[in-house]
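Q: My collaborator sent me two sequences in one message, no labels, and asked for predicted structures for both. Can we handle them in order? The first one she listed is below.
A: Yes, handling them in the order given. First sequence, followed by its structure tokens:
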Amino acid sequence: MGLRELLIPQDKIFFDLFERQVAIVTESANQLVALTENFTNVKEKCHAIELLEHQGDQITHDIYETLNKTFITPLDPEEISGLASALDDILDYIDGSAEKMLYYGIESTDSPIIELSKLIQLSVVEIEGAVKGIRAISNPKYIEARCIEVNRLENLADDVLAHAIMDLFKSNDAITIIKYKDIYEHLEIATDYCEDVANVLSDIAIRHS
């Protein structure tokens, strides 16, 4: 990279990478819902989600590599690394949740698993809209609204988790309790990371508007 490229903010590069990364997160969330709603061909569906997670890892690596080579950036370096890391965390927990369903050998998904998966999907749709909005922050209120909705969805996920665990402990099957509780909690953590992304995006919208 030459001196000119070092001195000129690499707006297009970073925003292109973020939009590619969030598109993969969205597709992963869509596939998670497809898996939980139709719990067949589980190994193949989990493998497809795993491949998306690997693609996301590569884009995260590309973002960090570009950041290390760029002298002036369109966003603060901490904002860039924070957003890349939090998006990657969502992917990790989507993949990890699917992996647990496969490796634990559960025979079927239940209402909490499907509900939590859909809340992840809804959150990611909002995040994708907000990520596209930071390319040119002409309407920070739009980004803020998307972030507020993600926060609301995360609160719903907390409620789903609490009720799911309460119902789960009505069972006397310790193995089932352990398996499903772990899956529930892993899915809910994905919504926590969605909220982390929303917080980063909200800060970006405020600082750069």
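Q: And the one she listed second?
A: Here it is, processed independently of the first:
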Amino acid sequence: MCQIHYSVNGIYGYRRMTLNLKRRFGRNVNSKRIRRLMGVARIYCVIRRKRPKYMRHLPQQTTENILNRDFHAAGPNQKWVTDVTELKYGASQKAYLSAILDLYDGSIRSFVIGHSNNNQLVFDTLERALQGAPESQPLLHSDRGFQYTSHAFRRMTKAAGITQSMSRVGKCIDNGPMESFWGALKCESYYLHKFEEFDELCHAIQQYIRFYNEERYQERLNGLSPLEFRAQAV
């Protein structure tokens, strides 16, 4: 066993050691015995380090799915949906895009791009949306991500008079319009380019969202762009 161990630079565990001994001597060898004897002889294989298991964040507070897939809104700033998506640039570096979409016209009311998927990213996104609609108290729908279930976010929405709604666990379709926007952004812009720098990625995202809001005409909006359709309501 020692000879085999050193000949392969210690990469064999007791299972592979057992297979090699069977082949070498042509006889049956009990793997449990080999494991015990390797321990006695202090023969240990070089084990690849396992990645630490992802520890799920327990939600601090959750709400019901009040939106309940009713994606129709009678007017602006009545129903908002929000989410965060991951984008990559350079040598597998990551950026995170947080956005809020108004279900009335599908326009993006605010967005923030950051290096970290943290609470501040989501807080800043909501703050910008509220600055653009200071008197509004919409229903805000999200998934059950740790940012949206935090007590700090709950306090922020409560102070603004916003009612929270959350998707059911594992039901992405509950936030369908937001998922649809991510799909459009990635297919029509992000996947078409390779971004080396964070600023380059930010510029492309900003340009696409401007295009999406102002120039991307939609059949469901009577051939208008989201902001043109919104202007009619205002």
